[in-house]
């Protein structure tokens, strides 16, 4: 599951999340998408192996904040550690 854009905007308005953090979440999504495509893993395969819906995957790839469990599950399918994703995105 991912937080939607309205949630992120509310956090930003409350000063709970900075523009830099928003950029980082978008980078996480882009990194996940790039790795998924590079490894030739389709959305249906991610869904089958993780239980994460295709629409949730697309929201994550579009920059919504993934739950830790989702990030861990996706990383496992991609054959990498969640920390690799976070490090690649400057987190």
Provide tags for this entry.
single chain, 91 residues, mainly alpha, 434 Repressor (Amino-terminal Domain), globular
Question: If you had to describe this structure to a student in words, what would you say it looks like?
Answer:
The protein has 6 helices and no strands. It has helices at 5-13, 19-38, 43-50, 54-61, 68-78, 82-88. With 91 residues, it is mostly helical. It has a single domain (5-88), classed as lambda repressor-like DNA-binding domains (434 Repressor (Amino-terminal Domain)), CATH 1.10.260.40. It is globular and about 30 Å long. The model is unreliable at 14-18 (pLDDT under 50). 69% of the residues lie in helices and 0% in strands.
Could you give a short description of this structure?
By secondary structure, the protein is an all-alpha fold. The protein has 6 helices and no strands.
Q: What proportion of the residues is helical, as a percent range?
A: 55-70%
Radius of gyration: 13 Å
What is the CATH class?
Answer: Mainly Alpha
| Largest sheet report | none
- Output the CATH homologous superfamily: lambda repressor-like DNA-binding domains
Q: Briefly note the CATH topology name.
A: 434 Repressor (Amino-terminal Domain)
Q: State the low-pLDDT regions, or none.
A: 14-18
* Shape, principal axes of CA atoms: globular
The CATH architecture? Orthogonal Bundle
Terminus-to-terminus distance: 20 Å
Beta-strand content estimate = under 5%
Spell the H/E element sequence: HHHHHH
- Judged by helices, strands and strand pairing, the structural class is mainly alpha
**Average pLDDT:** 80
Number of H/I helices? 6
Total tally of structural domains: 1
Number of strands: 0
């Amino acid at each position: 599951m991912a937080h939607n854009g309205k949630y992120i905007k509310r956090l930003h308005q409350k000063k709970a999340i900075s523009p830099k953090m928003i950029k980082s979440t978008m980078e996480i999504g882009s990194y996940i998408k790039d790795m998924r495509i590079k490894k030739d893993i389709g959305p249906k395969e991610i869904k089958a192996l993780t239980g994460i819906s295709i629409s949730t995957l697309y929201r994550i790839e579009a920059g919504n904040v993934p739950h830790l469990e989702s990030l861990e599950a996706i990383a496992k399918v991609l054959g990498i550690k969640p920390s690799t994703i976070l490090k690649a995105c400057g987190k």
